[in-house]
Structure formats: structure tokens, C-alpha cells
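To whoever is covering the structure queue this week,

Two jobs came back overnight. Logging them here so there's a record in the thread.

Job A:
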Amino acid sequence: MSNILISGCGISFSGQKPTWVKVLKLCGVTIIDRSGPAISNQLIINNIIEHVHENNDVSHVICQLTSMGKLDVKIHEGNKELYETDSLRNFVHDGYWPSSKSDEHEAKKLYYKFLYSPCTEETDTVIKLLYLQDLCKEKQIKLFVVQGYHIDWTHKLAEQLHFDKTNNIHDDYVASEYYKDHDFTNHNTVPDMRYQIHLAKKFNKEFLKLNIDHKLDRFHE
């Protein structure tokens, strides 16, 4: 069985909710899940690159991009109040506060007002993805990149990214029959269980192509 390395935001993170990654795990697929709740594209891509550099145990990589504008903050004794006082993003994941777009703390308000640069974030994301493409090609790893949310690609180098930039999971979910059962508690945007099963089947059919259809069929969308 192949080793599948996956990184994404809460849409994929199997440690918090029943996601498509958890469905594949239940089918016996060996998955290294480097996803995290609400984390940014910077951390999503970094997690993949670091693992691929440090290990030779990966045959497939799925990179589930999230929305732009997120910020992950490394937590230490001097800045714990950032997450401790936040009404929604009041947790730490892997040493980081995945603040998403929360701006309840004055420091985050000032960051978005004076420091955040959308064009710089896009450039950083594009360059990292280009490097990830080359790295996977060099190591003969099959790479699949999927957008979790819409991204407005404007950088000229984005044309060299080899994935579908016209579609994303969230818009597809909202337009589907599954959305009517969505739980909107706490501004939740993570798709419900039936759509997650749909995603597991879709990604296996389009990319992984593992012999697990008989196991996936046990899950009813």
C-alpha cells in the first residue's frame, strides 16, 4: 500500500472532525496527515516540504490549499494572550496559533491594517508551490493540489502551477445537495460527513487510484 502525505486546513484535518482523510484511513490507506485546523497556506506547504526533505516514505502527496489572508503565529510565553483571549481561535496546534482571519486582539488588527500584504502572500505561495512541484518530480512523488477555497491568482508565475485553479472544494460543496445539512455553529465552513465521503471517493478515483472501492462503497453519501 502506498504512503500518502496530506496537508491542508480543517477541511482535511483528521484529528478534529470526520474528514475525507479519516474516511481513507478507515479504508486501510496509510496516511501521514500533516493538516491542521485553520492553518495557513504557508504552514500547509511548509509541512509537506519539510516531510519530503526529511523522509523517503512518500509515494503520493495531496496538498489542500486554504484561503488567503490567514496567519499562523508561533506561541511562546510572551504572546499566549493572543489565543487565550480569542473567542473562536482559542487553541494551539503544533505550537502555532492558527489565527485564521481573527482580529479580536489589537495586535492582529494592527497587522491587517499596517503589515499584511496580499501580493506578498500570493508570491510566497506561488513560489513554494513551484518548488514543491519540482521537488516531487525529482523524488518521483505523485502530486495532487486542490483548492479548499477560491484563490484569485494574479501572479504571472501562477500559470506554471499544474493544477486546476478554476474550482475549489468549498464552492463545490455549497452548490451540492449535501450543503442543506451543514452545521453553521461557530462560523464552521468544514463540509459535513456525507460530502467528506464524496471527497474521499472523488480523490481516489481522480488521483490515488487505490484498490479500495469496495471499502469506500460501505460509506453512504
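Job B:
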Amino acid sequence: MSARFLTLRLTDTEAELLARLGASTGLTKTEIVKRALHGLAKTMPAGEGGLFELGAARFGRHGDDTRQAADIKRVVRARLDAKRPG
């Protein structure tokens, strides 16, 4: 299993809540966040694909791989056109 990392900015209230949850449950911050993600994923309607769809609106143009492919193709074509003798 490869490690994935997540950095969060928490407000003072959220940091306090996280600390209280850790103290009362004995869980690490990591385990609390993982359980929260899984709990949120379970509450989603069955038709939605999971956590990706939940955050898809936040990904912007990087959320749609076809747009990325189109952007890459446009850049490559422009570079090739620039190299062609005219």
C-alpha cells in the first residue's frame, strides 16, 4: 500500500473538536478523519460514485479527464505546428 497524505487547515473550533474526539475516543487524528470520510460516503445516495463525485465541483478543470486530454492535445498540436516549416 502506498501512502497518501492530506493536509488540512482547521479553524480553532474544528481543532478543538478534533482534540476532544481524540481524547474521548482514544483515536488518532488520522483515524478520526478516515472514519469521517467513510461515514460521509455511506450517507451519499447509491447513484453517486463516492468521494470523487462529492468533491468533483472543487476540482475545477482538473476534475474531468477528457478536458485534460483536450488541453494536452491542443498544446502538443500548437508546438508541432510551430516546428513545421511554413
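Note for Job B: Residues 20 and 54 are 27 Å apart (CA to CA).

Please reply-all if you pick these up so we don't duplicate work.
Q.
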